[in-house]
Input
Amino acid sequence: MTMQHVHVSYSSLGENEQHGIQHTCEKNTQEKIIISNERPWKPWQSARSQIRGFVRRVQTAMLSLAGLEWYCYAALGVLTALMSFCMDLTIAKLLRAHQWLYGCLEGNILLQFLCWTLYPSCLCALSTCFSHSICPQSAGSGLPEIRIILSGVQLPDYLSLSNLFAKLIGLISTLSAGSTVFLGKVGPFVHLSNMVGAYLYRLYASACGEKQRRTQGEMLVVASAVGVASCFGAPVSGVLFSIEVMGSHYSVRDYCPCFFAAVCGSLTYRLLSVCSREQETVQAVFKTRFPSELPYQPPEILIFAFLGLLCGAISCVYLYSHRWILRFVRTNKFISRFMATEKTLYSATVAFLLASVTFPHTGGSFIASRLSMKQLLSSLLDSTQWNLISHNATVAQESPHSFWQEWSPPGYSVYHTLGCFILIKLWLLVLACTLPLPAGYFMPVFIYGAALGRLLGEGLAYLFPDGISSGKKLSVINPGGYALVGAAAFAGAVTHTLSPALCALELTGQSTHVVPILTATLISNALARSRHQPSFYDGISLIKRLPHLPSLIRACPKLSSVQIRQFAVPVGAVLQRAEGVMGVQHILNSSKENEFPVVDTHDSLTLLGTVTRAQLQTFLLSNQSEDLCKSLEDECSIQPVKLQLSTDATVKQAHCIMSVLREQCVFVTEKGKLCGVITWKEIKNMIEELAKEI
Amino acid sequence: MTMQHVHVSYSSLGENEQHGIQHTCEKNTQEKIIISNERPWKPWQSARSQIRGFVRRVQTAMLSLAGLEWYCYAALGVLTALMSFCMDLTIAKLLRAHQWLYGCLEGNILLQFLCWTLYPSCLCALSTCFSHSICPQSAGSGLPEIRIILSGVQLPDYLSLSNLFAKLIGLISTLSAGSTVFLGKVGPFVHLSNMVGAYLYRLYASACGEKQRRTQGEMLVVASAVGVASCFGAPVSGVLFSIEVMGSHYSVRDYCPCFFAAVCGSLTYRLLSVCSREQETVQAVFKTRFPSELPYQPPEILIFAFLGLLCGAISCVYLYSHRWILRFVRTNKFISRFMATEKTLYSATVAFLLASVTFPHTGGSFIASRLSMKQLLSSLLDSTQWNLISHNATVAQESPHSFWQEWSPPGYSVYHTLGCFILIKLWLLVLACTLPLPAGYFMPVFIYGAALGRLLGEGLAYLFPDGISSGKKLSVINPGGYALVGAAAFAGAVTHTLSPALCALELTGQSTHVVPILTATLISNALARSRHQPSFYDGISLIKRLPHLPSLIRACPKLSSVQIRQFAVPVGAVLQRAEGVMGVQHILNSSKENEFPVVDTHDSLTLLGTVTRAQLQTFLLSNQSEDLCKSLEDECSIQPVKLQLSTDATVKQAHCIMSVLREQCVFVTEKGKLCGVITWKEIKNMIEELAKEI
Output
């Protein structure tokens, strides 16, 4: 019997330029039925053709409802949320296993010490070994590289499936090491969602063929929003993050897809936690119970502003130490040689060191080291005053969380532990940043900021035990509110972004503190950005000499006026208007380009337009037999060039034009003469040259 | 004695390209002290010079802290919030006066009817008369025009101070007419804040001179964010609005200024209401008391999605009716002639008609017409079930608001009143949209959506009196939550934006319903945007034939491929490389341009660059006396042109490049030959030509 190969390709409607979920696609389905007798007989021929017909009808119906890209966005959200949820489950199980083992060894301090230190060391070693043997690009946060890819420059291997696999397993191992290593999830997760997005884009492109209406860049912007949204179940901060991560211009066309995919992601993430009986309904991840009637008195806004200033100042210290240690690790001969050959051993050693310091029977009891990352954050956001609980047994029993006891070991007050936490964790975190494994740095910074705010809040509660009054009513100080404001302000200052403010609101599910959070985040950002200080990710970009133009310009503003003239832009193969068969043959043989510029004459070099390789081949074929040689101009239609840059344009302008207009290639002329051509490869080279100048 | 004129000009530091609140300005203050003896003696010479010195020191200190533009942003926020607050106060007083008068006339229905109808009629007539006699451009919402100005095209008189004055007084009169006329504040207020922004920008530009680092466009983007933020005290939705209002690309550089100014505005607005004893602390404008423990059951998300679908469908009906009536008013001979000559009478008649329908003793009691706009919204967002209150006297007494009684007149249930409200108000609102006075259309749409949601919520509460259960706990239906979701979804669908979702969250100060609100808004947007239907503002743009490219392309996607070739781009005065004194003299006399293109020869027309009028004048002066005439090339340095477009580029591309790169003028070449020049004037003409084609 015959076998039918059914190729169905859908033409997506015209130039449907604006975003909008429901596009009514034209249904001009082109069906090419190729009948071949090569394949052998297959069973259930009629059933299979029925199913095929049904699938085709469903496909048509779905595509008439919305364009294929919208299904991709939804799939991206759902897949990423699933990945995030499964990751959380696995990590929770591994953390519980460690706690169980540690509890079993109660009584024997040596064994407990070994359990406490070796477990995270092994996990970090595993993470490093795994990620480096499968894909070395999977180490680190991945956000600096994502920013580069979003600006249009391509980095090989950063969006491959092997990287996805390595990063996923590596990240699970890292996070299972718990609060000892004190690392987070967001950055690598955004990288992961970008890899999923790139993979979905490849599927989308192959399904659409040439009729695709979206570029990979658009899919990756959406994936960045989804990454943050699925990580915390926070759609709005995901969208704001996707705006901030773009270098210079955000295309408003991506706004709706970002929101759509982010809502799909966060809804799936939260519904999964409802299904797994973690939560009763769809609600915030770190739900707080701040009093909503009178959350704070108006004069407290000044204290919140001071907290912003404090967080900004400490963020500068942290950023400076971070850059220093990264440079030290790269320049110190011993460590850099050790890192080059024995990455796994280095990770294990550093993790062992970190775990030894945080061992509960020694220094760990002063920094609440028995709490996991999630427990640390939810304990810090608790609205009851710890100072009050520790002196009042009845309040202590009523308090829903028992985590506060970890912050108040026998004989020490909460001020001691919070102070120790702030002093010690900063250096531990700076050390942890040198680990060559997949890890995020947002959550630790967020928790650190929460501790800063908490200390200020507890201090105020001590100073004003009866609360602050500014009118009729008196309200008790809520240290949890200060912790939340501190977290947002410190995370915002370190990353030089404002989306942590929204993130703090969405994580807690309460918007009582929206004004203080935004005020403090703006102030801390102002301080952190003063004097062209690079942000956390800018610092990594600069030290690794990654080709990220905005961070280069931020570090050295005079680079924004560097002209493209400074870089030798090579002139490729050029055809002239009256080129004959011989010339065309020569150029086709000597060059591998797909498009060639056509000039008036080789002397004047006035750019007329471009011809494609296919056009030239047709030209050769048609003129091969004939003696009468026609010129290029007579036979090929020269495609005009829409845009020309002069050699006086700056690198920044060229980069901006190419990324905004999504051009792949721009011609450079000087006084009408063709000088060269710029593609993304040249842009990348230029930025790398600029990076060397700093 | 002598008088000292002290001119202080500050040079703002280098090319500080990136946003950041604290820029450390260089302090190289240039002081030119011009001593003249013309002016007479003035008293307190030493005291005055001391004060002047002090002011200068303060100025230097402030500018070393942050650039001047940041003070402008803060001033913009504070001024707009002050304006918003004063406006609210005046409107509240005028509304109370009307209520008092109406109450005094209790017992005499005829007098009450006259009071009820004539008060809004007079106010609407006043508003129309005032706005049209001072500045006819102040009528309407102003948002469609603001979108055009933000895209780069200039509209004369739309940002003038006389417009500000006319719009402010007109808007106060309109809003004082109350819920009878059912119009809002947001749109015109954004227009007002843009006018304040434009004025502040003129001050900024005159203070900075040529060293300014910001353009007017940037200030207007910030002003749009501030407008929404100061209107509701909602900073985040202000920023999202400023992103959505941009046509194609949002510059990430404006993101921080937008947030900063929006927070300044909303903080001032909320602090003012604290100072005026309206609120105890800084909190939301329409604060709700939804249960936070279990706000809704997971299956209810499906009902919320259905609500989104419903809102989307009804928004299509509303948008269609709105376009129809606008077109009818323009095309109907009688009405258009009446409108052209007797605008004031038309406004008074329509307002009288609207007030007659809503008179409480006739139909008004079925649509809760005694409630003001604010009372309508806060009553609809009430979390208690009205159905329950009306049957239970004790619950009724506990209920904080007594507004629900207006929704349940004797003998009728809340379903009757809500149904009547939804049926009648739609047509009244469509009619009110034809009024030629300053008015916003967001708030009425928001309230209408809330009524839709409330009806669904009350219906569900009737169907499930014991609440919905999906596990252990049972939760009672919260109709207020449905009202909030409906409001966001309907307002989002009508305006084709997503910022109403954030606005709903910030207005109520609770984020329990964030996921349902976003889901419903996305769904309603999807339905409203299907089949290239224009949004509310797009509809106005299209009917008024305003030069707004994105809405033209949305209405007719094939316009995006129209090339600039189709429009005759005129070639202005052109100089050639070897131009002599005579030619230059001729061109200077015949043309008024400030910049002239220089070509190789008049035959080849190869563009070399540009020279300025000043350069040409210097050239003429230096060659006047000499016999030996030098050519242009020898004496003037020809400034190269960075960017050239070909005639094959589309209007959309040209518009995008000019607005993204903030270019004022781009040269057009074809095959190396100069064809013409495009400035914003030509772009505007092109878009107006395109608008005629629809």
User: Anything to note?
Assistant: The domain at 68-275 of chain B is CATH 1.10.3080.10 (Clc chloride channel).
